[in-house]
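cron nightly-structures :: item 1 of 1
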Amino acid sequence: MRFVIVTGMSGGGKSTVLKMLEDAGFYCVDNLPVSLIEKFVELISVPNSEVQKVALGIDVRADQDFKETTAIISDLKKRGYGLEILFMEADDEVLIKRYKETRRIHPLAAEGRVEDGVKKERKVLDKIRKKADYVIDSTNLLTRELKAELDRIFINNEEYNSLIVTVMSFGFKHGIPSDADLVFDVRFLPNPFYIEKLKHLTGQDKDVSDYVMSFPEAHTFLDKLKDMLEFLIPNYVNEGKYRLVVAIGCTGGKHRSVTLTNALYDRMKDAGNYGIKVFHRDISVPGK
């Protein structure tokens, strides 16, 4: 039997994950009272049970300080129950934005500020997050990308670590991305903006892509960047990093950076047991 505990930050995507796992054939239960968790696991795990895949959603609503919940999960794992813990994560700013958009009350905010509830919850969940088998950061994940990550772990049973790499294009004239871990400047390449027939296209268009990649320096840059990332990523994984943002910038974020971001993604998408996604921040921003 496969038994998955789905927990994490409120607003991080637990409900969405449970729906996706249910569609994948898991028997899902959400927000079970703490006093029933142990008995539920024992009953559902009896030999020859028809239920072979179970997902149990747990959050701070069931146990406001989470100490009892953490203790029960630890005890069940010591007794030999093969529980896996999936922790859903997101940046504080994103969690606050999600709560404000839905006008829901954060479980630890009561009548106070959402910001305070998020901060308190992060402290409460710190121990179980460190014990999680999988950490998925939903900050920039599209629904289909989240489903792909879940499929990789729970459907395809691929070897998995919790690192998600985002390869992002941007324009320096619009500012360096605040969440970037690594920033690379590709303004050393000729700018397609100054070629009339390419000016109003982007790196998503073949003509622009072919032009940028016609320069040997573009290929050399990609070779060296891929080589460096293949060295860095395993070390980031060993340090417990769960998100890496690689930002590639040109002047306006439409031509060179988009082309090279796509090219790097194509080279790395099947390279390792980590999630990887592509994001073009400034491709639709007016101007150069």
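cron nightly-structures :: done
The beta strands are 2-8, 27-30, 53-57, 83-89, 134-137, 164-171, 182-185, 243-250, 275-280.
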